[in-house]
Every structure is written in structure tokens, then in C-alpha cells.
Write a structure and sequence with these properties.
This protein has 448 residues and is an alpha/beta fold. Helix content is 27%, strand content 27%. The strands form six sheets. An eleven-stranded mixed sheet has the order 3-2-12-11-13-14-15-16-17-22-21, sandwiched between helices.
């Protein structure tokens, strides 16, 4: 008797973009694009792309990045998202991934010679909304290198669909049932920028402002270009500049921030200054966003639906619906009732010198609190030959203060064994586009 094999179920697929054809997906001061036009642009660009397995997406314009990202995925290729557009970083990513090419939307310094430029007028091929398999790898994000060598983190379309649904649940209460307009200052290539300014407009009823505002007045102009309710997606560095600039912003439904710790006084100042609430998101390139808090009024983080943390001596294992397997982070947490937790630093940040303990994060916050200090960072240098423990060092931006004066004030805030030596004044910290400090860049300044 013949054996009848059960028919295999078709692979799970998800649409590239949600909503009817007339939903406004992106807009600027003098244009707007609906879902139908976006799909036509995606299909048109996909037809132009060369064969290959990987594409390094260097597009600056947010809408063109969105089109390029989607076209690469529709071609069955993988978007490579370097942590920086610096030529050395781009070349390193390219060398590590076979059959790769670069895609950009404008001529930039030191672009690879064979980089493909999108045409000024995007080609258009109308058609149905593409469907992507849930298991299709669509992107590889790279960590910033703030704690060492950048790492590669592959993402599937199914994981992005699930994590975006969680992010929408974490934010939708600030704008209700209306379709919000989203203005972002963070690069699309960064995983936080990917989640907030690429995936939200694709997979949620959100309209993207297509510009790339940087300076406070540019942010104000971008917000004025779009209708309320308005959502500003930014970083602590940009938020600090906005608060201190005195610029007037139109009404905001909320401000969302991530990429670096948000000081509570800054969160409180921003809420008061702009008459809104500030939502801080917690995540990483490895995990995507998995928790949130309103930093101005609470210290504890609220886990997103379905997320579970497993504290371990060396860090924390993250379990989440969008992760194919648990991810280990170096962060140390204290679990609280109600799916909440407190962040207790990182194992690598913990110091023990002469029997006394401290953390680099706490030492940095104390240095940043000294009068006249505009920005600062504390690190532990590699141990020198014959020494078991590396010295503590710091970079500080304080135009009106001398190094000796800063150290004098700092003595009242920390044990002398943790005083940074050297403490070096610089004009600016070598922060990247998201406000992070690559460790190599910090050590290079300290060696000068």
C-alpha cells in the first residue's frame, strides 16, 4: 500500500507594507507619497539592481532609503547596515560579505567607485504589494563598536513584523487612533532608526517625514512640514541640543529616544519645555527594542508584551517573540513585579580597585554633573605591563573650566582611587551619528 505524504504547508508570508493604496506613507515640504506610488517605486528600483547577495544601503534621504531597503528585499538580497558611512567601515563590511555592492542616493566623499546611485527620478512599475517570506533574511545590522569589535546581527522579515507590532503597542497610546507623522534624527542604518523610521511606516499606520534634520531649527522645520499628531524620534544628544537651543517646536504627541542612557533631569526638562512626554526605549542591535519607560517620572523599565528576562551572573538573557533564540546581553538587571526591571549597569563596567567598587557608568554621570562640564566619558584603560588593573581615564568637554579645577570638584563626588588620570579636555567627544562613543576613537584621543 503506497505511503501518502501529507502536503507541506506553504511558507508564512507577510506584506512589505500595510494599509490601502491611498494611505500616505511619506511626505515632505512639497510632496507626499501613498502606498501605491511607493510600491511602484520599489518595483522600479528592484528592476535596476544588479545581481548579488548583499547591498550596503548608504542612502541619506529617508524615503529613498525606504525604497532602496524594500527593493533589495524584494530582489531576495540582504541589506547591510554599517554602523557608520566612514569609508573604512563600509569597506570592512563589504569585505566580510561576498557578492556585495553599494547603493546610495547622492554623491558623497569617498564613495566606492562602483557604488550605484539611485536616479534623480525614481523609476515606477505599478503592481501588487510584494509579499516576503517570514524566514527571509532582509538585513544585517552591525553594532557600533562602543565596547569592542562591531558584530553582525542578521534579521528576518518575520522577526521585524513581530517586533514592530510590539513597538506599536508600546507607543500607540500617545497618539490614539489618528495616523501620526514621524520625524526622526537618527540614521536609518542604525537598528533603532530602522525600527522607528523604516519599519513603523511600513508596518503600522504611520507617515514618515522624508528629511534628515540635524540642527534644532531643522528639526522644528521638519515638524512643521507634517500634520499632527507628531512623533519625534531622536537621541539624548539631539534632545539635549533641542532643549538648550531655545527653539520653538509645534505640538508633539511624544518624543521617543534611545541609543544612550537618558538622564532623568534632561527627560524632565524636555517634557516641560515641549509640553509632551518622553518615552525612552531599551534595546540593542542584537535584540531590537524590548522595553520602555517614561524616564521623567520612573526609574523602572516596562517589558514589551511577551518578553522575558533571565538574569545571570555574567549578564542577562533576553527571551522575546521576535527572537529565534534567546540573546545574551552584558547588562545586569534587577527584576521587579509586573514585568518591570531596573538596570544595574554592565559586568564589563564594574570596577574593583583597592577593595573598593564602582561602575564606569556611575563615574561618567558624576563627571557630567560637575559645573561647566558639557559632555564627558570615563573609561578604563588596558592594564599596563606589570599591573593587574588598568587606570581610569576620562575625556571632558568644558570650555570654561580647567582640568585641575574639574578634578578638584570631582574629588567631592567620588573616592580618590577612581579619579580619572588622565582627565583630558577636548573640543568635542567623538560621538557617532547616534551619540555613541566607539571605544577605539576614545582611546585614540586619550593617547594623543
Amino acid at each position: 500500500m503506497p505511503v501518502v505524504c501529507p502536503a507541506s504547508s506553504p511558507p508564512l508570508r507577510h506584506p512589505l507594507v500595510i494599509g490601502d493604496s491611498t494611505r500616505v506613507l511619506a511626505m515632505g515640504a512639497d510632496f507626499q507619497v501613498d502606498v501605491a506610488q511607493f510600491v511602484a517605486h520599489v518595483r522600479g528600483v528592484a528592476a535596476l539592481l544588479p545581481a548579488g547577495a548583499h547591498a550596503i544601503n548608504l542612502c541619506e534621504d529617508r524615503y529613498r532609503f525606504l525604497v532602496a531597503f524594500s527593493a533589495v528585499a524584494v530582489r531576495g538580497q540582504v541589506n547591510l547596515l554599517p554602523s557608520s558611512r566612514a569609508p573604512a567601515v563600509v569597506e570592512d563590511v563589504r569585505q566580510r560579505h561576498a557578492e556585495s555592492y553599494c547603493l546610495a542616493d547622492s554623491v558623497m566623499d569617498a564613495l566606492p567607485e562602483d557604488c550605484i546611485l539611485l536616479p534623480a527620478e525614481l523609476p515606477s512599475l505599478p503592481g501588487a504589494v510584494p509579499q516576503l517570506e517570514a524566514t527571509q533574511r532582509v538585513a544585517i545590522g552591525f553594532t557600533s563598536g562602543s565596547t569592542g569589535v562591531p558584530g553582525a546581527n542578521p534579521k528576518t522579515w518575520g522577526s521585524f513584523v513581530t517586533s514592530t507590532a510590539q513597538n506599536l503597542q508600546a507607543l500607540q497610546d500617545v497618539w490614539g487612533q489618528a495616523q501620526p507623522s514621524l520625524v526622526a534624527t537618527v540614521p536609518s542604518q542604525h537598528m533603532y532608526g530602522m525600527e522607528m523610521s523604516v519599519l513603523l511606516p511600513l508596518l503600522a499606520p504611520v507617515t514618515l517625514q522624508a528629511g534628515r534634520p540635524f540642527f534644532p531649527q531643522d528639526v522644528a522645520t521638519a515638524l512643521l512640514d507634517v500634520p499632527a499628531p507628531r512623533l519625534l524620534v531622536t537621541t539624548p544628544v539631539h534632545l539635549k541640543a533641542l532643549v538648550e537651543s531655545g527653539v520653538e517646536l509645534p505640538p508633539l504627541a511624544a518624543v521617543v529616544t534611545a541609543t544612550a542612557p537618558l538622564p532623568q533631569p534632561l527627560a524632565q526638562a524636555a517634557e516641560q519645555r515641549f509640553a509632551t512626554q518622553v518615552r525612552e526605549m531599551f534595546g540593542s542591535t542584537e535584540t531590537c527594542i524590548f522595553a520602555r519607560r517614561r524616564t521623567a517620572i520612573e526609574d523602572a523599565w516596562q517589558l514589551l508584551p511577551g518578553v522575558r528576562l533571565e538574569p545571570l551572573p555574567e549578564g542577562t538573557r533576553v527571551h522575546a517573540p521576535h527572537l529565534p533564540e534567546p540573546v545574551m546581553l552584558a547588562d545586569l538587571v534587577e527584576l521587579l513585579p509586573g514585568d518591570r526591571f531596573l538596570l544595574r549597569g554592565r559586568r564589563a563596567d564594574l570596577l574593583e580597585i583597592a577593595g573598593k567598587r564602582a561602575s564606569l557608568g556611575d563615574l561618567t554621570r558624576k563627571l557630567q554633573s560637575v559645573a561647566g562640564v558639557e559632555d564627558a566619558w570615563v573609561v578604563q584603560l588596558p592594564a599596563e605591563a606589570g599591573h593587574a588593573v588598568g587606570r581610569i581615564a576620562a575625556l571632558v568637554v568644558a570650555p570654561q573650566r580647567g582640568e585641575a579645577d574639574i578634578l578638584h570638584d570631582l574629588r567631592r563626588l567620588m573616592d580618590p582611587v577612581f579619579l580619572p588620570r588622565p582627565l583630558r579636555k577636548v573640543d568635542a567627544l567623538p560621538r557617532n551619528e547616534t551619540g555613541k562613543l566607539p571605544r577605539d576613537a576614545v582611546l585614540a584621543l586619550l593617547r594623543q
